[in-house]
Specification:
heterodimer; A: 150 residues; alpha+beta; 4-stranded mixed β-sheet; 6 helices; 11% strand; globular; B: 242 residues; L-fuculose-1-phosphate Aldolase; 7 helices; 7 strands
Chain lengths: 150, 242
């Protein structure tokens, strides 16, 4: 991992405190959620009297252990960390995290859930030409933020 | 450390416009600041004339006495509920700014028996259960929800107690802090906390902040550097960064 985003995105916060529902994949863009995103609870290792902030390396390491090999970990009552290989990927993943959380809430409202099949969940290293979209995303995000320098 | 009345007036005008821009206040609601020059004929606190907060300019901001009346008699229309501010400043020497809002996300909690409570760290100031002040219980026979005299304001201030927030049943809330910046940060965090809590409640069981994780609002420690970070951000979003 070469890039990390720590955020307080509104859409994932309910899942960071819910004991009933895990943040999990519902759409293609949120496959990284898998069957349930882990939640790091600062009270587990550091008691129930902290100010919730990750203030030192000991707390940071505890969070990193919870992350393990995952792409994303929620932080109870606080937010999440999203990791990636490069700034562009971490931006795309962070925005996909938001889309995925909002999609899951909408699915729960609508009821029922069509799940992904095993082949859909397998890693597929040989994508057809034109289906890698990180650069396309990046150009789009730059434009939206008024940052493209063409 | 002590600021001038002029400086606080400028911050208060910005706070009005930010809270309007962020959707905490709409055409109604108001935010005030204690006058650092209070006493010797100067007003106890500063508050706009009756105007939508997002439109408030420094020239709209008037001085009010500790009883909630304008220091200089004014022909301008005044906020009917200015006694909220007067009574809270009288009861709480630690408070330097007060916001009264009708923020949509907190309104359900002012009616429901499910208390608004801290569920996210930025809203640590709410605590395990925001008190709800019910005007119809405090003043039987009262037909209006409005805090339209000093006695009503004092009753609300008593419900607020040592806390940083109190809800007004079916009406809105009051949020207090040491500075306009702290009140702005608290109000925006309050709105987010309410949204997150409502969704988590619909999902089922949830873990709020533990009591020890909530803020001791009477002994809050030095203001977080994050308040200045937030203030710059909100100024920019509201088009006020100079």
């Amino acid at each position: 991992m070469t890039a990390v985003c720590h955020n307080h995105a509104m859409s994932i916060l309910p899942f960071s405190i819910s004991r009933s529902v895990k943040l999990r994949s519902t759409i293609n863009r949120s496959l990284m959620f898998g069957e349930g995103v882990p939640v790091w609870d600062i009270a587990d290792d550091f008691g129930s009297g902290t100010d919730m902030l990750v203030r030192n390396m000991t707390q940071g390491r505890s969070l990193a252990r919870k992350l393990g090999q995952q792409v994303i970990t929620l932080m109870r009552g606080h937010g999440s960390v999203v990791t990636g290989n490069g700034v562009r990927q971490v931006v795309t993943r962070s925005l996909n995290m938001d889309l995925g959380a909002r999609a899951q809430l909408a699915v729960m409202t609508l009821g029922g859930r069509r799940t992904f099949t095993e082949p859909e969940l397998e890693p597929h290293p040989e994508l057809p030409a034109g289906s890698t979209h990180d650069d396309r995303d990046w150009e789009y995000f730059l434009r939206r933020a008024g940052l493209n320098r063409d | 450390m002590a600021q001038s009345t002029t400086a606080v007036r400028g911050e208060l005008a910005d706070a009005n416009r930010i809270l309007g821009h962020e959707g905490i206040l709409d055409a109604y609601g108001h935010v005030s600041a204690r006058n650092p020059a209070a006493g010797d004929g100067a007003g106890a606190f500063l508050l706009s004339r009756a105007r939508a907060p997002q439109l408030v300019e420094e020239a709209d901001i008037l001085e009010f006495t500790a009883e909630g009346e304008p220091v200089v008699p004014s022909t301008r229309t005044l906020y009917l509920e200015r006694y909220i501010h007067a009574a809270i400043y009288a009861a709480r020497p630690d408070v330097g700014a007060v916001c009264h809002s009708h923020t949509p996300s907190i309104l359900p909690f002012s009616v429901s028996t499910t208390p608004l409570r801290s569920v996210i760290h930025s809203a640590r100031f709410i605590g395990p259960a925001a008190p709800v002040w019910d005007i119809s219980r405090e003043f039987p026979g009262e037909w209006s929800p409005l805090v339209r005299n000093y006695a009503y304001g004092a009753s609300l201030a008593a419900a607020l107690g040592d806390g940083a927030i109190a809800l007004l049943r079916g009406h809105g809330c009051v949020v207090v802090g040491r500075t306009p910046q702290e009140v702005v940060s608290r109000c925006t965090a309050m709105g987010k906390n309410a949204q997150v809590q409502e969704i988590a409640h619909r999902l089922g069981e949830y873990t709020p902040l533990h009591p020890g994780e909530c803020e001791d609002t009477l002994n809050p420690g030095p203001p977080l550097a994050a308040d200045n970070r937030a203030w710059e951000y909100y100024l920019r979003r509201a088009g006020l960064l100079r």
